[in-house]
Amino acid sequence: MTLKVRQDSVQQGGEWWKWSVWLDGTPRELDAVDHVVYTLHPTFVDPVRRVKNRRTGFKLESSGWGEFEIYLRIALKNGEVRKRKHWLKLEQSKGEELRRAAGKAARAYISNGPADGVFARKLREILRERGFRVDTIEDLPGGLPPEKAMDQMLQSADIAVFFLSGRPSLWTYTEIERALAHGVLHIVPVLVGSGAEVPPRLRDLQAFHVDSPEEVEPLAKSILEAVGTPP
Prior knowledge:
By secondary structure, this protein is α/β, with parallel strands linked by helices. It has 5 helices and 12 strands.
């Protein structure tokens, strides 16, 4: 069997990429495959992914900010298994300025629950020092319903950071859906502690992890590097 692993990648800004990997082979070879299990880098929220779509060549699509080795377990319809590995290559570039128009400051939206307030406030301070305009739940303007105010802030955001500890609230689910609907360029899940539960809508995204407020400074640096803004 001469199945090969192919890939594609599109830079979204800075070091953040959308990418895909799939199998390439003859129609007969692809017809013999039942499904493919991809194992990604452990920083992904859901690193083991099963794809069964023959029509796309068992393509897996995701996004992230770094290169790593992907392991494939190719399950054939006759019960046999083939293994492959592929180094996800993201071509280096100088990065794109995180700007929607010349001279406009990048804008960040930070989502957090009551238990994550200290993390959100610290990240807000750091990003503001770097020249970002930062919105959080504490910045909801008066005179508007909360959901409408949140929607307006996400509509103009370049980055949306979601601090997640425990099970997300209905408000967090709403924020996530609106961030996706508005096409926010960079959506960044941040897992706080070991009991964080990531909503299914964010499981394709590469996540960051923090355990204490002292780790917010390096977190901010990593986020800025990932989105192409000098830390």
